[in-house]
Amino acid sequence: MTCAPSLLKFLGIKLSLEIVKPKAFAEQRLFQAILVQALEDAVNPSGFKKETYYKHDSHKWFVSNSIEFQDICWGANMDPEFVRGEYMKMVDNGKIFFTKLQISWIKYRDLYKRYRECGTKEQRRIIKKLILKENLKRLES
Q1: pLDDT band at 61, cuts 50/70/90?
Q2: 83 pLDDT tier (thresholds 50, 70, 90)
Q3: Which of 50, 52, 56, 118 could make an SS bond with 124 (beta carbons 3.0 to 4.6 A apart)?
Q4: What is the DSSP letter of 27?
Q5: Percent of the chain at pLDDT above 90?
Q6: Least confident of 11-15, 37-41, 94-98
Q7: Above 70 in pLDDT, residue 107?
Q8: Which of 81, 66, 6 is nearest to 39 (CA)?
Q9: Residue 10, Cβ density class (10 Å: 0-12 exposed, 13-18 middle, ≥19 buried)
């Protein structure tokens, strides 16, 4: 599997060695590519909205330790506990974090979901005010 040397350096020796280890089957390489993409999304420092959403989604995926996450890891011939443990070490060490701008985009998306789920116009009006406040805070910073 080929991936950016900067990503491998960022991930550390243990996880990088596991990623670059040759995989015997095409299916393993496919699942490995999914893991690498999720890791690339999780370490992305970009403040753009779409990249922030990808980062947040991949972060939740690693943290949740869902059946889907475990299946992808096993499919890539990697132990899910090892992968998740290495990811959590990077979070604990401050290598993976969210900037203020990224946090603002995440709040915006959560508010927008709430807005779409509102049952009444009054609820929508209240949520819309919160969305506008969040947008103003993002513009000020």
Answers
A1: very high
A2: very high
A3: 118
A4: H
A5: 72
A6: 11-15
A7: yes
A8: 6
A9: middle
Q: Which residues contact 16 (CB under 8 A, 6 or more apart)?
A: 8, 9
| Cβ-based neighbours of 34, under 8 Å, separated by 6 or more | 72, 76
Phi, psi values for residue 118, rounded to 5°: -60, 145
Cα–Cα nearest to 59, from 32, 81, 30, 91: 91
Distance CA 79, CA 42 (A): 19
How many CA atoms are closer than 13 Å to the CA of 87, on its beta-carbon side?
Answer: 24
Terminal Cα distance for the chain, rounded: 39
Burial class (CB in 10 A: 0-12, 13-18, 19+), 11: buried
